[in-house]
Amino acid sequence: MKNIGVLISGGGTNLQALIDAQGNVLKSGRIVCVCSNNADAYGLERAKKAGIPTKVIRKKADCGGDGDEFSRRICEYMKEMQVDIIVLAGFMAIFGGELLKEYADRIINIHPSLIPSFCGEGMYGLHPHEAALKYGVKVTGATVHLVNDVVDGGKILMQKAVYIEDGDTPEILQKRVMEQAEWKILPQAVEMICKGE
Ligand code: GAR
To answer: Is 13 touching ligand 1 by the criterion CB < 6 Å?
Structure first.
């Protein structure tokens, strides 16, 4: 059984999908802690409701805006909680340094597009959906990948396509991509990594 640490920044619906998958889709790992870089993230409430320990580490307020310190502090907490695998579930900060080094090939991210489309710096949250609609693609989706030092550039683990429909707004599309792709492939990919496949 692997220990999973989840990093979040906001609503935490992907965290919820992981919590709900425990014991069914997610059999080889259990969530031991949730860390947020935003004290107001609703995902923290979801974790508390599920009895999972939480911590807030903010880059500016707690680390003086120092990226290396931010990475070191998160790494320290993950080690303290004996985390084996880190999942970025809507984590909106970019980090390098110690965390990336210590957890190389053991950090998983969910991105709301089919990489290599609509990804990279600045492409987070609603932005990939805005870009997909602006470009006029007919299919988008979600990607689960390993995290390395290139933003959204690590090895792809799983992808799922979602059709764009007439009248889609970024918000409508975001919801469909979450429901049809993200909440399904994230628990599956985390299980795959926990199982060592
Ligand atoms: C999700 O759509 C996730 O894929 C995306 O932010 C949303 C978070 O929602 N992540 C990124 O854009 C990371 N680059 P959630 O907090 O409800 O899981």
So the answer is: yes
